[in-house]
Design goal:
Length: about 400
């Protein structure tokens, strides 16, 4: 038989499960479930009075599951859902359309869960909250607030704008880091080629001449000769370093750890905190526009801040709950710049706190974008100069004995 999963079912989910069960009469039979977790499959078999003997997942399904762990495209889903709702479809029809056109197996399974739950009459926010690995708390709260007002398209529009702005900054950071990374890679390989291939050949010539060479050149030649004689070990170390780096970057936890270490650099920490504050302002604006109370909204978006900022936000939230103004609380906690403080005060007087927080985030984003552009323009010539100095130093140290020989002949 085939059965669809219910949202929120626990356990490992596979697109196809084969259960070997035994009935009360002792007869064995096989049951097939699709798009369902193991726990849910066992529960349904037990509900029919059957005892589960074994659970099998076809190897092809396991391979497909392992190869399709891409995160659910929440922004694309929101954009497409918004377009269909604005075209006049109701929510169930829109999700049905998205489910029918989806080709990615894992993403199609998520949409299938949403569709079945909507057909059962459940609220969209309740279904989304049962899948926190795909839908963030901010997204769920925005949708839940829109269900009270009946304006889901407007909520989706605000969330898409929030995520698009963040993605724009992220892409700008990535594009700014590509060229420096390529410079470092090319410069590193050129330096290794000089040290491991060119320098050892010069060392043979100098050793056969029997002349004394400068000590810095001697150290360089000795290092190059050692690297040439033990190139297998050097290659193994290089491959290991590249493999570990690639494995770290391929894992979300590894990327997060590496990014955290980089952002601890003194000249990056302040800018990283400003970037986090901009995301905090924008997410807080999104929740306030959706009708979420201020204190609760502050608690929901605290994960966007760093550890020290989260500790400061806890005191800020307590002060707001005790009746203090948001602007004074943010300033006391060190979570507001001069511009953000002024804009929040305007929002407190006008009652448009969400709009003012959005303006503060936009101001911080513009300033951060200018800094990224300035830093990328400065970093490229600095890296080129450093690489040139390294390669030039290697070349000069290789030729210094020749210069000494030419001077003695003159």
């Amino acid at each position: 038989m085939q059965a669809s999963s219910r949202p929120g079912a626990g356990g490992v989910r596979s697109s196809r499960l084969l259960l070997t069960v035994q009935g009360v009469d002792g007869r064995r039979q096989s049951l097939e479930f699709t798009d369902i977790s193991e726990a849910e499959a066992v529960r349904r078999a037990a509900g029919r009075g059957l005892r589960v003997l074994s659970i099998e997942t076809p190897l092809a399904e396991v391979a497909a599951s392992n190869s399709s762990r891409a995160p659910f495209p929440l922004v694309r889903f929101s954009q497409e859902l918004l377009a269909l709702l604005e075209a006049g479809m109701n929510l169930a029809e829109a999700v049905t359309t998205l489910h029918a056109k989806e080709r990615h197996e894992a993403h199609r399974a998520v949409l299938g869960q949403l569709l079945e739950a909507l057909r059962e009459g459940r609220n969209l926010s309740d279904v989304l909250s049962g899948m926190p690995q795909h839908f963030s708390e901010v997204y769920v709260a925005t949708v839940r607030a829109s269900e009270r007002t009946g304006d889901l398209p407007q909520a989706l529009t605000r969330y898409v704008a929030y995520q698009v702005q963040f993605e724009t900054l992220r892409k700008k950071l990535v594009s700014a880091a590509i060229y420096p990374a390529m410079l470092l890679c090319v410069g590193g390989f050129v330096t290794l080629f000089l040290l491991g291939y060119v320098v050892p050949r010069f060392s043979v010539v100098y050793e056969s001449s029997g002349r004394e060479i400068p000590w810095m050149s001697a150290m360089l030649l000795a290092f190059g000769k050692t690297l040439y004689q033990h190139w297998q070990a050097g290659l193994a170390i290089l491959v290991t370093v590249i493999g570990v780096t690639g494995w770290t970057l391929a894992r979300p936890q590894g990327r997060a750890w590496l990014l955290e270490q980089v952002l601890r650099l003194p000249w990056l920490a302040a800018r990283a905190n400003e970037f986090r504050l901009a995301r905090f302002y924008r997410a807080l604006s999104l929740l306030l526009a959706a009708g979420i109370p201020l204190a609760r909204a502050m608690g929901m978006v605290q994960g966007l801040l760093g550890q020290q900022q989260q500790s400061a936000l806890a005191g800020c939230r307590l002060a707001v709950e005790q009746g203090q103004s948001l602007s004074a609380s943010l300033v006391a906690a060190g979570l507001a710049s001069e511009v953000a403080e002024s804009l929040v005060k305007v929002g407190e007087r006008s009652g448009q706190m969400g709009d003012m927080l959005e303006r503060a985030a936009r101001f911080a984003d513009d300033e951060f974008s200018r800094w990224v552009e300035w830093a990328s323009r400065l970093l490229e010539p600095v890296l080129m100069m450093v690489i040139g100095l390294v390669i030039g130093s290697v070349v000069v140290l290789m030729y210094m004995p020749i210069f000494d020989l030419a001077g003695s002949l003159q």
